[in-house]
Design goal:
The chain has about 190 residues and is an alpha/beta fold. Helices cover about 35% and strands about 15% of the residues. A hairpin with a 3-residue loop joins strand 4 and strand 5.
Length: about 190
């Protein structure tokens, strides 16, 4: 006769706390994971319902930029690529040689910087065709905003030997007063007729 061993019963795992552990892990991952967020274009909009009169600007204080439906960019009546647009915008904003065809420079007392010539009344007027692609629109906006970033960074490095992003908030505000970002969206010609 054969001797049979008694069968051992497999011990059951207590699964009553498994749901609690899974819930705690889910909360942990939700709290510690960073989600990708969409980034927009930072622009200051006028208050809603504010009926402001159109500002009268001298022609020399306005840089017209046109984004056409086929993606071509026209700056002051000449076709340019996006890199050249950035350089032209920098020259227009800063007006380093005090050119009479570029924006007027007005001396202004600015904390941390003293009396500095500022092109206060300049405006970059961006008109984009409805048929232009979103990618082209964003690249033009990025080129224009990049011109301001470059000028601010150059001033910060000249004055404090560090990039604009590393400055204290007070110093950043002083640099922004020298190069205030003024990009205006202009309605396309087809919108004006309506």
């Amino acid at each position: 006769m054969f001797y049979r061993r008694p069968r051992r019963s497999v011990p059951e795992i207590n699964a009553s706390s498994t749901a609690d552990i899974a819930f705690l892990l889910l909360i942990f991952f939700l709290l510690t994971t960073s989600m990708d967020t969409d980034r927009g274009l930072p622009r200051r909009l006028p208050p809603p319902g504010d009926k402001t009169e159109a500002m009268k600007l001298k022609e020399r204080n306005v840089l017209p930029v046109d984004l056409e439906g086929d993606g071509r960019v026209k700056c002051a009546g000449e076709y340019v690529d996006v890199r050249e647009l950035r350089e032209r915008a920098k020259l227009f904003i800063a007006n380093p040689q005090d050119d009479p065809d570029l924006p007027e420079r007005v001396p202004e007392e600015i904390p941390f910087l003293g009396t500095v010539p500022v092109t206060k009344h300049h405006v970059i007027a961006l008109r984009s065709d409805r048929e232009s692609s979103y990618r082209a629109y964003v690249s033009v906006q990025e080129a224009l905003a990049g011109a301001y970033r470059d000028l601010r960074d150059e001033l910060a490095r000249r004055k404090w030997q560090c990039p604009y992003a590393d400055l204290t908030p007070d110093r950043q505000e002083a640099v922004r007063r020298v190069f205030p970002q003024k990009i205006s969206e202009v309605k396309p010609e087809t919108d004006k007729e309506e």
